[in-house]
Amino acid sequence: MKKLIIVLVVVVLLGAGAYFVFRGGSSVNIPQSPAETGGVPSTGQTPGNEQAGGANGAQPSVSEQMSIGKSVEGRDILAYNYGSGNTQVLFVGGIHGGYEWNTVLVAYEAIDYFKANPAAIPAGVKVTVIPVLNPDGLNKVVGTAGRFAKADVPSSQSLQISGRFNANKVDLNRNFDCDWQANAMWRQTQVSGGSSAFSEPESVAFRNYIEANKPSAVVVWYSAANGVFASSCHNGVLAETNTLTNLFSKASGYPAYQEFNFYEITGDMVNWLAKSKIPAISILLATHEDTEWSKNQAGIKALLSHYAE
Question: In the chain, N or C terminus with fewer CB closer than 10 Å?
Answer without folding.
Answer: N
